[in-house]
């Protein structure tokens, strides 16, 4: 029996293990199977109704898999926000959803999935843009209640997807300014509990760098990005653990390590000194520990006392202990 002859439920289960998150199951099967033959192309484009209905449900949640005890387990399978709330009814008893012309409605199950998928990416873009404005604002600062409200307002959110500008929700939260470390830690915990993956990098977009989201239904399966974050970037990657380590946020570092953050991942960025915000330290392809040590050396060179760097010292201690 060929794979294409299996029931849609079984095919869906197979690709749920190949894709990094539920929101990538649909793109994953299109990347891998659609280019193989016209038969697969026809089945995916015009058939497989049950599969696409299951994939539509997958767009309402997000999680990531971690390797533990010689096997893969699902981590944080909770939904970011429920989308099962009933539509409001008008006085006439009709749904308040706007009507659409039959010619504008998606014709096939796959077309309906693509429409929902594009709406998901659009919500992600809008939500992350609003989050970026708050994490860098000295007036409307980031808070736990604000983040909860944001996740509910733009529900459902594929929390592990990198947007066109290269950002991710977890990275933006760790970079927050004008707030205490305890607030950042609470926001990190909220995102992790809702399925955020601490090992997905943002791609910093600057001069001579770009970040785009490819059309997942027309790209070649030979790209090597099947089932992964489908953002292709020439920007410099940056991980949440590296940001927390460079900023000396020891409680955030300890928590990220506890939930599976990889301390061996390398990233590139520039961070301001605690002792002089006009001076920044640039690092390229450094681990979290290497970034923390580099920040420590520059802080000491700038004349700050070691007693004022307790967070950075504790961060280095945690990372060294974790690697032993």
From TrEMBL:
The stretches annotated as ANK repeats are: 236-268
Q: Which UniProt keywords apply?
A: ANK repeat
Signal peptide, first to last residue: none
Pfam families linked to this entry:
Ank
The answer on whether this UniProt entry bears the keyword Transferase reads no
Residue ranges of region Disordered? 85-106
Could you identify this protein by its name? F-box domain-containing protein
Biological source species: Stephanodiscus triporus
